Amino acid sequence: MKVLFAASEAYPYAMSGGLADVAGALPKALRKRMVGCRIILPLYGTISEEMRKSMTFVCNIVVPVAWRKQYCGVFEAHLDGVIYYFIDNQYYFNRDGLYGYYDDAERYAFFSRAVLEVIPHIGFVPDVIHCNDWQTALIPVYFNAFYKQKEPYTNIKTVYTIHNIQYQGKYGKELYTDVLGLPQGAESIIEYDGCINLMKGGIQCADKVTTVSPTYAKEILNEFYSHGLDYILKEFAYKLTGIVNGIDTVVYNPEDDPLIYKNFTVEKLEGKAENKKCLQKEMGLPEKSDTPVVGMVTRLVKHKGLDLVKCVFENIIKQDVQFVILGSGEYEFESFFSEMANKYPEKVSLVLGFKPELAHKIYAGADIFLMPSLSEPCGLAQMIALRYGTVPIVRKTGGLNDTIRDSGDNQGNGFTFANYNAHDMQTAVERALQGYKDKNGWAILRKRAMNCDNSWKTSANQYIGLYKELIGK
Q1: What DSSP element (H or E) covers 468?
Q2: Which letter does DSSP use for residue 268 in this model?
Q3: Per-residue b/e over 161-200, b at no fewer than 16 CB within 10 Å?
Q4: What is the CA radius of gyration of the chain?
Q5: CA-to-CA distance for 180 and 98, rounded, in angstroms?
Q6: Burial class (CB within 10 angstroms; exposed 0-12, middle 13-18, buried 19+) of 438
Q7: Helices 18-32 and 457-471, axial angle in degrees (round to 10)
């Protein structure tokens, strides 16, 4: 079985969020299970010269973008046993960032068309093209419109994964003819709610639609979570399924992680205490071994639950606790946490921005990890925290609900709350702080957390089952 994994970003070449982690890890997990999976992504200008040195030129072709004919170069690289293809077009991709440009619709229309056009030229005809998020939503649309009845495409199936339904690729109808270049009469495929909606087209045209956790697959059928797409999702619910993401257990491994202060294992947890001490020192906090450290590595935006945190933060900070926060985002929350760090310098430390090395250190050095999201399609941070013995507090939504079970039954791996309510969150935090005081019980909970298997093993097997169902194997 052969799978071509099409994504707009993939670790370690291009990264802006969780999609890059998934695209960097799932193909590796599939290959370990004898699935021939290769990745295709744009050759961005942000990819370093060092990484480019390992790429080899494959070919160049011309790709249609509506009435235009655009150059497309194809490069290949091998990393960790996986073959990567890179789509080169300097005009579209030689820029300072990945997204946020006025012509993003045209850029990813070109990329989607290029993915299909290069298949006869790379010596790899997949059984399945696995597309991801709005940037590749046009692949199933173009496939059905132009390629499905032609060789060598006739037996190919398409899978479309929604990583975050909030970002749908919505544009004005004027792009239909001039940019997207779909046949006359196909307008209804990508029109929705008065505009072009690329994600809607992907949902309608793909053979299977997946999202990144079973709970999120149910939630997005509800208008509260669907950002307007619940009607189309209900229509095509028969092909929707949820498969929870895993994490890369090689990148996130406390036993040999080069980014943390001291390595440790579930059998030898002494290094966990050393990581906490060093984290407190680096972040300018008093080195108190008995004071629990709550870590947050997050985008500072409302849907991450930060309005809940803001509401009761000063109630929580009155207790014997320290907070270490890493992230950036909305001015409201950057300002609030900056104010708290200035007001409580011995209890709150904030670093604005994102530093991967510091993120690893927080996962390893904190005692508790707070993640009170309004919505969370899957979430990786809570699973990474478990890997490092840092006990999560989460709201029961999306993948948080699928991966964290409340420890009140003496079998769970964290602390949870259900209602999107600041005081319910505060109660969960206080339960965790109280639990921390029971050293024997906390040690058991920490080991239980570290023994959770959130690798890609189970998820990869579920994807393989989905692929086999599609191609009749």
Answers
A1: helix 457-471
A2: -
A3: bbbbbebbbbbeeebbeebbbbeeebeebbebeeebbbbb
A4: 23
A5: 20
A6: exposed
A7: 70
Question: How far is it, in rounded angstroms, from Cα 208 to Cα 202?
Answer: 10
Task: Judge contact between 295 and 324, C-beta under 8 A.
Answer: yes
In this predicted model, what pLDDT tens digit does every residue of 405-454 receive, in sequence order? 999 888 999 999 999 999 999 999 999 999 999 999 999 999 999 999 99
CA nearest neighbour of 67 among 148, 159, 181:
181
Tokens for 222? 């509800």
Cα end-to-end distance, the chain, whole Å: 9
Residue among 410, 371, 362 at smallest CA distance from 392: 371
Q: For 36-86, what is each residue's pLDDT tens digit?
A: 999 999 999 999 999 999 999 999 999 999 999 999 999 999 999 999 999
Cis peptide before 12 (omega within 30 of 0): yes
Q: Which domains does the chain possess?
A: 2-246+457-471 (3.40.50.2000), 270-450 (3.40.50.2000)
User: Quick one: tokens of 4?
Assistant: 């071509």
Cβ(200)–Cβ(220) below 8 Å: no
| C-beta of residue 164 within 8 angstroms of C-beta of residue 193 | no
**Over the range 356-390, which residues count as b (16 or more CB within 10 Å of their CB) and which as e?**
eebbbbbbbbbbbbbbbbbbbbbbbbbbbbbbbbb
Structure tokens at 177: 């003819």
Beta sheet of 170-171, edge-to-edge order: 170-171, 195-197, 191-192
> Is pLDDT of 184 > 90?
no
Q: Give CA torsion, residues 66, 72, 77, 83, to 10 deg.
A: 40
Within 167-260, where are the H helices? 175, 187-190, 198-205, 214-219, 223-226, 230-235
